[in-house]
Amino acid sequence: MEELERFISNARAAQKAVDQIILSAGRRPRSLNETCFLNRAAVKTFLLEQAKQTRTHKFSRVSAETLRNVNELVRQHLFAVVRRLPSKGKTI
Question: Which residue from 3, 22, 35, 77 has the fewest beta carbons nearer than 10 Å?
């Protein structure tokens, strides 16, 4: 229990430090893009359209987790494309 209290205390101290940095900067920092390989709007539209055509249940939203999963699949595919290339040449 004491370890948990120490962890909570450290977390609060860290949050105070972050808040202080944000206040001194005068603005909130931009968030990192978790789906840098995707056009999120196009992916959402495509997924919802596919769901409309193939599923009986109507879907209206795409979760952030789904977008992260699709982004990871795209990233893995890009690694595979580069690995498949011959050792000669300059063009991917």
Answer: 3
Query: Using an 8 Å Cβ cutoff, are 43 and 70 in contact?
Result: yes
Instruction: Report how many domains make up the chain.
Output: 2
Specify whether 16 is located in the same domain as 53: no
Report pLDDT digits (tens) over 15-43.
777 777 767 766 665 667 778 889 999 99
Angle between helices 40-54 and 64-84 (to 10 degrees): 100
Contact 71, 34 (CB under 8 A): yes
78 with 37: CB under 8 angstroms? yes
The range of the structural domain enclosing residue 86 comes to 31-92
Task: List the structure tokens of 4.
Answer: 């948990």
